[in-house]
Specification:
single chain, 298 residues, alpha+beta, Structural Genomics Hypothetical 15.5 Kd Protein In mrcA-pckA Intergenic Region, Chain A, Pseudouridine synthase, 2 domains, five-stranded antiparallel sheet, 18 strands, 18% helix, 34% strand, RNA-binding, PsdUridine_synth_RluC/D, S4_RNA-bd_sf, catalytic activity, acting on RNA, RNA binding
C-alpha cells in the first residue's frame, strides 16, 4: 500500500466486519458493478484501506478496517507538463490544459500536444490505455477538455455534443469597457486561410449563439463570463470581435494589445451528461491569475 498525502473526495466507504481480502470484499459491496470495472478501480489506485491506496487484490482486511473508493484516481496527482487531470473514470478523462499547448497534432507538431502528453503518461501506467478526443480548444486557449476512454463513448458524446454539454463557460479578458450583458447570434464560416468569418446571413455559415456578462473592469479592459449555446470554431473570439471588444492578444480577430503575453481566453467549466450514468457532471478549471491579476483582489 502507498501513502496518499492529498485525497480527493470519497465516493463510497465501508467498515470491515469480518476477515476478508480486498477484491473479494469489493465484489461483495459493489455487486451492482461488473467485476471488470471493480478490478479496474483497484488497479488504478482508487481503493484506499485505512487511508492508504492499494492495488493488491489479496491484501488482507481485518474487522474495523476502513475501505474507501476515491472519485478520482492516483493518476490525478500526476505531474504532466502543461496538463492537470481533473477527473477520470471508466469512460472519460477530463483535463485542464495550459495556454500554448495544442489539443491534437498538426502537420508541424505531433509530440507536444495535450493528446500525446496525456496518452503517453497513461500508457506508462497501463500500455493498453487509449484516449479519444471529444472536442478541441485553440492552442492559445487554456482550460477544460474532455477525452473519451473508448471509441463508443467518443461517438456517444460527439453525436449530440450540444445536447450532452449542458454548460460551456469561458472567462475572457477583452479590450475596452463592456458595461452590460448581451447575446451575439450570427452564422460562422471558415475560409481557406482558416480564419472564421461572421455573417447575419443564414446561408453563409453555421448558427452560433454566445451569451456574455461583465465580471470586472479596469482601465481599458473587461473580464467577461461567456456561455456558449453552440460550439463553433473560434466562436468566442469572433463574437467578441463582432461587438467591438476583441479578446486580449487576439491579433487575428482585431486585438491591439497583448498585455498579458497570451490569449485572454480560458475554458472555465463544462457540465455534461455522463455517457454511461446519464448524470450531469460539472468540471471546472481555475481561472489563470494572468487573466485576473490586473483587477486586484476580487
Amino acid at each position: 500500500m502507498n501513502n496518499k498525502k492529498d485525497l480527493n473526495l470519497i465516493k463510497d466507504e465501508w467498515t470491515v466486519e469480518e476477515p476478508n481480502e480486498v477484491l473479494k470484499f469489493l465484489f461483495e459491496k459493489m455487486s451492482d458493478r461488473s467485476k471488470k470495472s471493480v478490478k479496474a478501480m483497484l488497479s488504478r489506485g482508487q481503493v484506499l484501506v485505512n487511508g492508504q491506496s492499494t492495488t493488491q487484490f489479496n491484501d488482507p482486511l481485518k474487522p474495523g478496517d476502513r475501505v474507501e473508493i476515491e472519485k478520482s484516481t492516483s493518476k490525478h496527482h500526476a505531474d504532466i507538463r502543461g496538463i492537470e487531470v481533473l477527473h477520470e473514470d471508466d469512460d472519460i478523462i477530463v483535463i485542464s490544459k495550459e495556454a500554448g499547448l495544442l489539443s491534437i497534432a498538426t502537420d508541424s507538431e505531433d509530440r507536444f500536444t495535450a493528446y500525446r502528453l496525456l496518452s503517453n503518461y497513461l500508457q506508462t501506467i497501463n500500455p493498453k490505455t487509449r484516449i479519444f478526443i471529444v472536442h478541441r480548444l485553440d492552442k492559445d486557449t487554456s482550460g477544460v477538455m474532455v477525452f473519451a476512454k473508448n471509441q463508443m463513448v467518443q461517438k456517444k458524446l460527439q453525436d449530440n455534443w450540444s445536447d450532452k454539454a449542458k454548460e460551456r463557460t469561458y472567462v475572457a479578458l477583452v479590450e475596452g469597457y463592456v458595461g452590460k450583458s448581451g447575446t451575439v447570434t450570427s452564422y460562422l464560416s471558415e475560409d481557406q486561410s482558416f480564419k472564421v468569418h461572421s455573417s447575419k446571413d443564414p446561408k453563409k455559415g453555421k448558427k452560433a449563439i454566445t451569451h456574455y456578462a461583465p465580471l470586472n473592469h479596469t482601465r481599458g479592459y473587461t473580464l467577461l463570463r461567456v456561455n456558449l449555446e453552440t460550439g463553433r470554431k473560434n466562436q468566442v473570439r469572433v463574437h467578441m470581435s463582432d461587438i467591438g471588444h476583441p479578446v486580449v492578444g487576439d491579433k487575428k480577430y482585431g486585438a491591439k494589445s497583448r498585455i498579458i503575453k497570451r490569449l485572454g481566453l480560458h475554458a472555465h467549466a463544462i457540465a455534461l451528461k455522463h455517457p454511461s450514468t446519464g448524470k450531469v457532471m460539472r468540471f471546472e478549471a481555475k481561472v489563470p491569475e494572468s487573466l485576473t491579476r490586473m483587477f486586484g483582489k476580487r
